[in-house]
Automatic annotation (TrEMBL):
It is found in: Endoplasmic reticulum membrane. GO terms for cellular component: endoplasmic reticulum membrane. The gene is Pomt1. Residues 296-359, 370-427 form the MIR domain. The chain crosses the membrane at residues 68-88, 100-120, 154-174, 186-203, 208-226, 246-267, 578-600, 612-630, 642-662, 674-694. This is Protein O-mannosyl-transferase 1. CDD domains: beta-trefoil_MIR_POMT1. It is a multi-pass membrane protein. It comes from Certhia familiaris (Eurasian treecreeper). It holds the Pfam family PMT_4TMC.
């Protein structure tokens, strides 16, 4: 029974020495001296803030993209025991001892290192020789810009890693299609393609470009499958559903999971809350939640409320009034109603409180049982402190003469009667009988007499002059078909009024709100709001010293100084390997010209290369040249501040195109032994130049050793490069 123990247990394994060696070299090139410099390097000042907020569980919004990349950087900080206590306010600031620099930079460095073996495997899966694949990997290994970008707490190396992983996974899946469809490995690589695409998009929205390329490639391959008569309709349907599940459904689910984890981690109120709705703010621990948790849910006649404008940008503000009146005449000579001012005030204040009154009754308290206000009901809004009614009439607003002035009505015994009836319209209602709810309902107030809509116009224009205390203008806007968020309001703080007497009511208005009913937003509601904010929130783009245009990237007419030592002159720059970038541009041009030549010749029924070589040429170009195009050309349509690092995903694909073109030239154009020998000699010389450039610029890639001014000047190969030289 134990006879099998008489023979030794032998395990055999195939090890690709090329792959192992490339991985080791990649790790050495990216991990060597990773803690140097122990100072904030360029955009580490930006991403470090978010890492600190993750460590402290404080909510934030970053309009640059989804949270997955930030979470990976924060994971490095968590593994290193970072407590989040560091002031990220200056590039070059020395890290304190509590900052685990090596741990924070580790994941980007590992991602950058693994791009080297991924490049090798992609070329192998494209059916190119191991020599060509080795060349592609070495070009990625010796690319100075990729080394620089992967050695710091930045996201581009992680993005490129997931992009290349997605491409490799799809190629492996596609190569298994003919002989191993629906096998375990087939499913593994198909699902991994979708997962890698989702991760790429989750790091930066630039990942969408490669995701769309792979979806288009998968669609084209499936189109060819439809024409295969050997496949039954049921088999085609299974293939279609498998691709839909792995390339669309799973990535969408994974993308949602990034936000779920993000929101689960960041449960505390923070400085970015104010751009979110009141409902979102109330779901966070601390901040608004301490005030609003458990308020009465349904707004009733007699409710005391504060009204926050939903737009919330460039700042949040609340409907407000005070005893001061509009001037009789404005600076431009126009007259006003001289009624009590109504504004939108960007701070919490007792003058933000209003009472919802039933026009048919005099009482300003909530009855028992409360009578809820519903969509379409007519109300009066009484200012809590001054007890004057919100009013609008056919008088031009102070800053927006085409809109109506909004005021609190004062009876001057002149021919200007009060017009203070407002219809409540719940914008996000589910039915026409919906009850007006605290925080959750987004409402519009339509003036009964003039059909004007209450609008915080000051959010998109100038503030009032000194007589209005620089507060924001509120107007009555003529009703239009659509609506703008500046016309929409929500109840933020709410209590049921109990005091009919004014003095008692003023005491009540100054007291904290009561806590009766708690409100919770669902994950999908929070995700939808946060996703919309990320897509629509735009910081003012300012011209940066190192910003550039997409045209500058092709010829590398620009660079970025990432770090400068305060005394020695040692510095780090984002600069590509000039020899590699020039070769990549040449390879792209050769590929385009040869493709056009072959297409013209094939149209004339002249076939210069075998059909299998043509298919290989087209498929490799679709991935490499297509990857370059989709990751580069969209930047010409973007209205944002651009930097050289935005080009790195595109140039990575372009570098992969170099060995594709070189092998094609060697196999199909160098047909004699002499030509092949000359071509090989040229390749050796060319690759030596790539290595020479890598070595020449390695001091400004790694930041050491520090070079004297004469050697720094020698590195300024282009006049447009900004190499920093200290004055002696």
């Amino acid at each position: 029974m134990l006879g099998f123990l008489k023979e030794p247990v032998v395990v055999t394994a195939k090890i690709n020495v090329n792959l192992v060696a490339l991985t080791v070299m990649g790790l050495m090139s990216r991990l060597w001296g990773l803690c140097y410099p122990r100072a904030v390097v360029f955009d580490e000042v930006y991403y470090g803030q978010f890492v600190s907020l993750y460590m402290k569980r404080i909510f934030f919004v970053d309009d640059s993209g989804p949270p997955f990349g930030h979470m990976l950087l924060a994971l490095g900080g968590y593994l290193g025991g970072f407590d989040g206590n560091f002031l990220w306010n200056r590039i070059g600031a020395e890290y304190s001892m509590n900052v685990p620099v090596w741990s924070l930079r580790l994941l980007p460095a590992l991602a950058g290192a693994l791009c080297v073996p991924l490049a090798y495997q992609i070329l192998v899966e494209l059916h190119f020789s191991h020599c060509a694949a080795l060349g592609a990997a070495l070009l990625i290994l010796l690319e100075n810009s990729l080394i620089t970008q992967s050695r710091f707490m930045l996201l581009e190396s992680i993005l490129i890693f997931f992009i290349l992983l997605a491409v490799l996974s799809y190629l492996k899946f596609y190569n298994l299609q003919k002989h191993s469809a629906f096998s375990g490995s087939w499913w593994f690589w198909l699902v991994l393609t979708g997962v890698a695409c989702s991760c790429a998009v989750g790091v930066k929205y630039m990942g969408l470009f490669t995701y769309m390329l792979l979806l288009a490639t998968a669609g084209l391959h499936f189109w060819h499958m439809i024409g295969d008569q050997n496949l039954s309709n049921v088999s085609l349907l299974c293939h279609f559903l498998a691709r839909g599940l792995a390339l669309i459904i799973i990535p969408m689910g994974l993308y949602l999971s990034f936000f779920y984890v993000h929101l689960a981690l960041l449960y505390r109120s923070g400085p970015h809350d104010q751009i979110m709705t009141s409902a979102f703010q109330a779901s966070l621990e601390g901040g608004l939640a301490r005030i609003t948790q458990g308020q009465p849910l349904e707004v009733a006649y007699g409710s005391q409320i504060t009204l926050r404008n939903v737009l919330g940008k460039p700042m949040q503000c609340w409907l407000h009034s005070h005893t001061n009146t509009y001037p009789i005449r404005y600076e431009n000579g126009r007259g006003s109603s001289h009624q009590q001012q109504v504004t939108c005030y960007p701070f919490k204040d007792v003058n933000n409180w209003w009472i919802v009154k039933d026009p048919g009754m005099q009482q300003l308290v909530v009855s028992n049982p409360p009578r809820p206000v519903r969509h379409g009901h007519i109300v009066q809004l009484v200012h809590g402190i001054t007890t004057r009614y919100l009013n609008t009439h056919d008088v031009a607003a102070p800053l927006s003469p085409h809109s109506q002035e909004v005021s609190c009505y004062i009876d001057y015994n002149i021919s200007m009667p009060a017009q203070n009836l407002w219809r409540v319209e719940i914008v996000n209602r589910e039915s026409d009988t919906d009850v007006w709810k605290t925080i959750l309902s987004e409402v519009r107030f339509v003036h009964v007499n003039t059909s004007a809509v209450l609008k915080a116009s000051g959010l998109s224009g100038a503030s009032l002059p000194e007589w209005g205390y620089r507060q924001l203008e509120v107007v009555g806007e003529k009703l239009s078909k659509g609506y703008h968020q500046s016309m929409v309001w929500n109840v933020e703080e709410h209590r049921y009024g109990k005091s009919q007497e004014q003095k008692e009511r003023e005491v009540e208005l100054h007291s904290p709100t009561q806590m009766d009913i708690s409100k919770n937003l669902s994950f999908m509601a929070k995700f939808t709001e946060l996703q919309w904010k990320i897509l629509t929130l735009k910081n003012e783009d300012t011209e940066h010293k190192y910003s550039s245009s997409a045209l500058d990237w092709i010829t590398m007419d620009t660079n970025i100084a990432y770090w400068l030592h305060p005394t020695s002159g040692a510095q780090i720059h984002l600069l590509g390997n000039v020899a590699t970038w020039a070769s990549a541009n040449t390879a792209a041009l050769v590929y385009l010209c040869l493709s056009l030549w072959y297409l013209l010749r094939r149209r004339r029924k002249i076939y210069d290369i075998p059909e299998d070589a043509w298919q290989l040429w087209v498929s490799a170009g679709g991935i490499c040249a297509g990857g370059w195009a989709v990751n580069y050309l969209p930047f010409f349509l973007m209205e944002k501040t651009l930097f050289l690092y935005h080009y790195l995903p595109a140039v990575t694909f372009q570098i992969l195109l170099i060995p594709v073109v070189l092998q094609h030239l060697s196999d199909h154009l160098c047909r004699s032994v002499l030509l092949k020998s000359m071509f090989s000699a040229l390749l050796v010389g060319w690759f030596s130049s790539v290595y020479f450039v890598y070595c020449t610029f390695s001091p400004v890639t790694y930041g050491q050793p520090a070079l004297p001014p004469t050697e720094l000047r020698a590195l300024r190969w282009k006049d447009t490069w900004n190499i920093l030289i200290r004055k002696q």
